[in-house]
Structure prediction request, 299 residues.
Amino acid sequence: MIQNIPRNQQKNGLGLKKHHKIILGGFSFLIIIFIIVSSILTYSLFVRVELNQNKLSSDISTLQAETQNKLNELTESILKTKEELNSLNSELGNINEEFDLLKASVGEDFSGIIDNSIKSVVTIRTDVGQGTGFIITENGYLVTNAHVLVGGQEVYAITYEQKRIPAEFIGYDSTLDVALLKIPGEYNSLELGDSDKLQIGEEVIAIGNPLGLQFSVSQGIISAVHREGINKLPVYIQTDAALNPGNSGGPLINKQGKVMGINNFKLGGSESLGFALESNSLKEAINKIAEEFLGQTLI
Prediction:
């Protein structure tokens, strides 16, 4: 027999079930919200990872392309440098051959002098012209004719080994056409002799770089001393050693290997009439410039 449940108990039972439904409904709603939010966050994270991965792939591809371009440029640079070295070795080989021929042509008296002197002679090159110079101190001071530098904005010294070195302009003597320059490094230098001891008929050689990458050596004798130049000063050596274009600023050397003058000019349209500033006057000009701009004498 089914017992009758009191009415108040039935009401209490129904109230409990409704409360449970609310709690369960709220909990289910929260779970659904959590699932939706988690799904959104997961999807956002996935999209973000995908975007980062795509960007990373793009960056890697760009980096690979840039690296390949750099490698190609490096390879081309190495090949170009190799070609330049081969060309330089060929030029040096030609210079050495000419050097041997020159030593043979001047005879035993000057062959050793050329050996000792040629590496102290440099080509002076500007953006408008070129000439010759020679090193007078072991720490890189060198001289040339001032007119070689006229109009130039940049000055370089090209050594016997074909090194192109920027030269610092120190100063010049416009009257004697002498300019003092400086290059960094240590070098063999040429010694200035006493031009007052020069004898007419004495043999000398003139060294120059008329073509820049090569050198020329001409042999001759002292034809006269204390000749007047265009500055009206009797401080020039006359020689029949050939002075070619580009010889300006080069040394005139005697059999003792000393510089007796700096090659300066030749009479236009004439042969065997070259003139060099005497070494004693050159020394005075160098020390005058050095004292004015460096506060010391050099030689």
Observations:
- The longest helix spans residues 7-106.
